[in-house]
Amino acid sequence: MHLGAASSTSGQPRLGVTMTRIFKPPPDGALTWNNSTDRRREALARWRNAVCATAARFEIRLAWVICDNVNWTGSTSIGDTKIMQSLGCNRQKVQAGLKRLSDMGAIIRITMMAPNLNRKRRIHLASKIVSEKINGCLPLGRTTSPPKSKDTPLSPPGDDNPI
User: Fold this and answer.
1) Long-range contacts for 111-120 (Cβ within 8 Å, ≥24 apart)?
2) Which of 37, 66, 76, 156 is the 20 to 30 Å CA partner of 109?
3) What domains can be seen in the chain, in order of their start residue?
4) Which tens digit of pLDDT belongs to each residue from 65-95?
5) Which among 33, 36, 58 is positioned nearest to 47, based on CA atoms?
6) How many other β-carbons are positioned within 10 Å of the β-carbon of residue 53?
């Protein structure tokens, strides 16, 4: 059985099983925009600024690699090997960084089964990190977050008499 392109009775090629694609909408919580270049650029800029405000240096570098490979739907299927080559690090560090980005609400990772029974990962940019920073009144140009708690000491422990 041939699964590629086949001819119909009219002589025109028709799509076979391997040529069809099923469109899946982005998951809930994914960063989306209309088909406008300006809106896409603005959404990506807000996402990058929110990541800069909350992530550590390695996660920021990882987020940039992901963002540079995002298509018009806000997702990418970049593999660990390409990320490792781009950042010059090992697979464990990439996986740990992806987990931290996912935990902070910067990305959504989805694993799907392809028709050939291979697993395929999609990474979507998440809107959670953007909305948290907008609602938290973090300006777009800011690159650091305020202290997490009021218990943060201003002087070293045991230093009761600062000069």
Assistant:
1) 115/17, 115/18, 120/77
2) 37
3) 26-135 (1.10.10.10)
4) 999 999 888 889 999 999 999 999 999 999 9
5) 33
6) 20
Residue with tokens 């201003």: 154
Which amino acid belongs to residue 161? N
By three-state DSSP, how is residue 10 classified? coil
Q: What is the pLDDT of residues 133-144, one digit of tens each?
A: 554 444 444 444
Transcribe 105-134 into DSSP letters.
TSEEEEEEE-TTS-EEEEEEEBSHHHHHHH
SS3 content of the chain, % helix, strand, coil (to 5): 40, 15, 50
Residue 92 CA to residue 18 CA, distance in Å, equals 34
Q: How far apart are CA 51 and CA 28, in angstroms?
A: 19
Indicate the pTM of the whole model.
Answer: 0.66
**Residues 73 and 29: beta-carbon distance below 8 Å:** no
Gyration radius of the chain's alpha carbons: 22
Contact (CB, 8 A) for 111 and 104? no
